[in-house]
């Protein structure tokens, strides 16, 4: 009598189940499978292991590039953060070193001159005030209207225009139309007129020898540096030349100013 398909499946699964049962029983009672069970089990297990290995290989080939890319992105972000952290620390250390240097200058000059008043800058040009700076010294500290204000006690910045009990406003010499008597090139007296934005202008006869880079200083024996010539304009229709200069220091960078009581 011929065996149908369902009967074949029953026989196949029955034989397989019996083989697995014998395999497990051999572990329980003997501790290791007999040789004939080893061969039978390998017959069933080897294809499964092969399929498992191929599947894992295929999955790794697909997933690994994404894992590597994610690792590289994360590492890149981490390194960028470390670089930013190091740059921030370097900027901080540089700022501290600069401030310490300025404080040493202030201390030494203050020690040599008791009439010298040192003040910190609270506000600068472009931050709510026009061509002026605000300092943290006022009437209570001996500040008076018209007092001369300098940077490093060597560069003229301006004059006290207003003073309250604890703060004062310094009107810069570059204030529009503010006039300052100066020497240019070490020999020629002139008037420097403020143009705003820390810039000034001098007008002289065209035959006066003036060069870019010349220093401009205030009049008097106790003279101060005002600015440096940056540009010179001459015209064929005018007998005068226009000389443009800028304050010798950047008001945005200094932290302290000096006043003489």
UniProtKB/TrEMBL annotation:
Keywords linked to the UniProt accession: Cell shape, Membrane, Transmembrane, Transmembrane helix
GO cellular component: plasma membrane
Classification via InterPro entries: Cell/Rod_1 (IPR042177), Cell/Rod_MreC_2 (IPR042175), MreC (IPR007221), MreC_beta-barrel_core (IPR055342)
Span of domain Rod shape-determining protein MreC beta-barrel core: 124-259
Transmembrane segment boundaries: 12-32
Pfam families in UniProt: MreC
Highest taxon of the lineage: Bacteria
GO biological process: regulation of cell shape
Entry annotated with the keyword Transmembrane helix: yes
Family according to the record: Belongs to the MreC family.
PANTHER family on file: CELL SHAPE-DETERMINING PROTEIN MREC (PTHR34138:SF1)
Name of the protein in question: Cell shape-determining protein MreC
Species this protein is from: Candidatus Tagabacteria bacterium CG09_land_8_20_14_0_10_41_14
